[in-house]
Amino acid sequence: MEVENRYVAVRHHVEGSPSVDDFEVKAETVRWTPESGEVLVRNMYVSIDPYQLNRMKRQSASHHSVDVIVPGERIASYGVGEVVASACEEYKEGDVVAGMLAWEEHSVFRPETSMLMSKVDASSGFPLSYQLGALGTSGMTAYGGFYEVCKPKVGETVFVSAASGSVGSLVGQFAKLAGCRVVGCAGTQAKVDLLKDKLGFDDAFNYREEPDLKAALKRHFPDGIDIYFENVGGEMLEAALANMNTYGRVAVCGVIAEYTDPGRRAVPDLLEVIYKRITLRGFFAWDFITKFHEFTAIIGGWIEEGKVHVIEDVSDGLESVPSAFVALYRGQNVGKKLVKLA
Ligand SMILES: NC(=O)c1ccc[n+]([C@@H]2O[C@H](COP(=O)([O-])OP(=O)(O)OC[C@H]3O[C@@H](n4cnc5c(N)ncnc54)[C@H](OP(=O)(O)O)[C@@H]3O)[C@@H](O)[C@H]2O)c1
User: Fold this and answer.
1) pLDDT for 65
2) Which atom of ligand 1 is nearest to the CA of 162?
């Protein structure tokens, strides 16, 4: 079988803020045979994630275990798709799968080397797109980061940055369910309204309108912050640390402000960390992979009960992948950023 495939590639390594001109759409013919041992998938949704930018940098500028994306080649990403042809027992034509696919219209995967791939129960009643957000890696990140890393207690105060985004919007709602007082920040008034009016945050503010972040956090947390869920880095982390309570916990999930500008790297006051016995812990979503089904079953239950709202921001068509990606760094997305392909 042969299918015409189009995929998105970077033209060159990307340093600083990405622009749509850094990307190109390429075409190829994909050949699949029953002897290949592979599964051919027609991609329905692909995920747009901030960490991808770190993979687009030159090796020397990228970080640790990040796989560098080779200019001109396809870009692996989480996705949901329908099996079109399968050379293995486990997957049948028509099955819906979620896992590591790519920013392309069709993908092939080999089950024995695709650890992250799983079949989706399409009759669950949830939109398939949720597999990439609340019921996928964003959910696992938010749940694992908040419950396992932050270990919240009833009555504690929680600050969430990038709070209207995919991970942040879930963390804030989980914090309310855990009996905490939660304040989020975001980059527009519309996002601030969403946090307070729809997602149940106790308070929220537009960080772009705050000339002094430390003072803003002091105002919002007169009794200090017990838990900071860090998505942004830079000055935001410095301001949060200055307002943490003794034995406070900081879950370092991401530092998006630093992805585009290494000059903005946070300079945390470590004396603050020592004297207040603050725990700063970085983590990866995949640290919780063995609990993935446990976490997503709980989140799915909350969504069904109306206790958690899912916010998605969906663009259409492969050509919109570059602008969807660039939007993340301009704060133009609200909730989980996805591209619908079919
Ligand atoms: N550790 C892990 O395994 C893991 C897994 C998933 C995600 N993450 C991290 O979690 C964070 C959120 O990811 P997400 O997928 O949920 O993305 P997201 O929050 O849905 O989208 C990114 C948001 O970040 C904010 N932002 C962008 N540039 C910024 C800047 N310079 N300063 C402050 N805010 C900025 C924007 O919202 P505003 O309107 O608020 O500016 C933007 O909408 C990222 O740092 C990501 O790398 C980590």
Assistant:
1) 57
2) 40
